[in-house]
Hints:
71% of the residues lie in helices and 7% in strands. It contains 22 helices and nine strands. It has helices at 2-8, 32-42, 46-60, 65-81, 85-101, 105-119, 126-143, 147-164, 173-185, 189-204, 207-227, 231-245, 251-267, 271-288, 291-307, 311-388, 392-429, 436-473, 477-512, 524-542, 565-590, 645-655, and strands at residues 10-11, 17-18, 520-522, 549-553, 561-563, 597-605, 608-615, 659-665, 669-677. A five-stranded mixed sheet has the order 4-6-7-9-8, with helices on one face. Strands 1-2 form a two-stranded antiparallel sheet. It is extended.
Amino acid sequence: MKSMVFILAVSLNMNIAYSQLGGSGTFIHDNFADSIRDLIQHTGNDTTRVDLLNSLGNYFALIRQDSSIFYLAKAIELGETINYLNGCHEGYDGMAFVLNSAGNYGKGLEMAMRSLKIAEKLKTDRLIRMADSYQRIGLINLRNNFDTIALDENRQSIRLYEEAGVSKDIISWGPYANIASIYLKWKVLDSALFYAQKSYDIVLNYHDRGQVFISVAATFLANVYLALGRVQLAREFFLHGIETNKKFNAPLLRVRLFNNFARFYKKIGQMDSCIYYAVMAFQLCRNHQFGEQATDAASLVAQTYEQIGKPDSALKYMKIFIAAKDTIFNQSKLLQIQLLNFDEGQRQKDIQREINEAQERYRNKVRYYALIATATLFLLLSVILYRNNRNKQIANKALESQKKEIDQQRTKAENTLYELRSTQAQLIQSEKMASLGELTAGIAHEIQNPLNFVNNFSEVNAELIDESIMAIDEGNPNDAKELLSNLRQNEEKIKFHGQRAGAIVKGMLQHSHESKGQKESIDINALADEYLRLSYQGLRAKDKAFNASLRTDFDPSIEMIDIVPQDIGRVLLNLYNNAFYAVSEKKKQLSEGYEPTVTVITKKLNGKVVIRVKDNGNGIPKRVVDKIFQPFFTTKPAGQGTGLGLSMSYDIVKAHGGEIKVDTREGEFTEFVVQIPAV
């Protein structure tokens, strides 16, 4: 039965349920939906039923969006009930496509992210499914004008297809088309042509399975040729797309093709042809309730009539445009109601899952406490028996050995202090040191804890060595092994705290390093945006579950300024990393009802460039705000920060003739403001 599903409906890159039957050029017939519904009624296999529901939802994706949402939601609900992950992934991916087409980008991105999480857990076709999800996420970010993020995600999709060995298969054509759109938008036309041609070649090589996508790929290529000024070639590809599209029941693709062709004719001045194809697009939208595309078509017709001096016709279609927007609102409400019902079902399942997990955690906790109680009892008995068998001679030897070990550790500590003092002398000579007294206090404070651990564990180790010798002399090998095991654990702790002290010294040296970078003429907006994406993707690579909203407002009037890009980049990276850390910690505390958000704003003001980095995290307590730019001061837990990031940032900004300030409210937000000369 499963093979029959994929003969009837092949869900490729855009999750469109189309397939060739018999090889004669005949494609899905008019009663396709009825045939699938009949199969759903008569099959007894739930896995097959999920596949059939997905096929039906994907079929309606290009015909009737509310029907598509209905069937895809049914598929997801059943798939989660029987734990059929492949079916759930296809359902969420299809949802993302439909919501994106309907202009609901936020909900579409949520569904795409769910599909990616499921794809990462799959045992079969994992790489291909992940590639599908990355392509969908990239497309939605492209619609949201997050072009740089969209470019990275589509490239990741291509890499995964290549790793899966299907980079030349029909399913891989989509990310090439998306990248072509990005480069076309950026006016990098040679790259846009390369990727558009690549997408078109992949589709063209699969005559049997890929013909439905030829019209889309041809449209991308036509738009690139139009931008290159090759009008005749662009017209040929548009006509080729229209001719191919006639073979399929794909109204949404046809609407987009007609709208693109209408814009083509408007650009070359053939207004009658522009109106002809825009009106055809509008009629299709009205028949299939494509509200988002209907407004595009009606607006295009109204603008064209106004341009050619026909105000009556322009007014008519402007009224149609307004009516279409009302229709979009009503359709959006219908989709929203469907999604609310779907979300409520998901919420009930999550509640039940949390109850089950809580019960399991409780049972595990009971077992854990029972095990701890038993182990503690045995440990107490062992200690009591061991202490009763000690004698004065062994105690004296232990004291002597302990004194010797203390002397050795003191010597090591003195050597370490000597190295630290040498490092301190280098830091004093560096221009980065704002205050010798603060640095010395910071070093002493940070190094004291690991040194205390080293000294304390060394004293304990001396005692354990003597007790091991005594156990061996008395013929108690088991006691000796246990003591030696404790000795090894203590040595590992000594090593850990020694490495921690080394990390502090390394951070101090990095802070004092004098930059030799040369100033360059740089676009500060591009630099701020680049490091924002790098920081966000770096955190996402460590914690895939982490998500945050990125909001930017870059002042386009800022001209190129002379800075050391590596140094200012390090300042931005420190501020971004701190912001993402803050919202991540707050998300762990609140989890529900909180949306992590990081905002970056640039502005040219009074001969200076102002960069604002704001997060909606927990803020900085008032008692420590005045200390945050001091070396080695940090509010992060031990091991997660050295306290040098903001100190280095402060020095770098000062070296550029600027200043850095902080505005914060505990529990609500933190905003860093960097000002540098706009020259």
